[in-house]
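Work through what follows:
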Amino acid sequence: MSIKKQYRRQRIKMRLRKKIQGTEATPRLSVFRSNRDIYAQIINDLDGKTLVAASSRDKDFSAKGTKTELAKEVGKAIAAKALAAGITTVVFDRSGYLYHGRVKALAEAAREGGLKF
């Protein structure tokens, strides 16, 4: 990723984070997308703690396919872990990425899994 793209994404991310904050009642679902993998965390910003995390690199994650299909599986996994931890409502943080492709696939799979945002 070029410096210009990184700078642009950081500016968008900071602009979003001014408005979005995860609380105990509604934690933040944060997405990180690398070239190969995708990661999702549910975070309580008031305590600064990660409540639930899932990624395409987890040892128990064995799905194969395209990167978009992996993102769908990660979305289902984060939703299942969140529901097991008693979390039903979250605030979605796309971390400066466009709501398109893998980020959109993860979000829609998390909604199908039972999370509300």
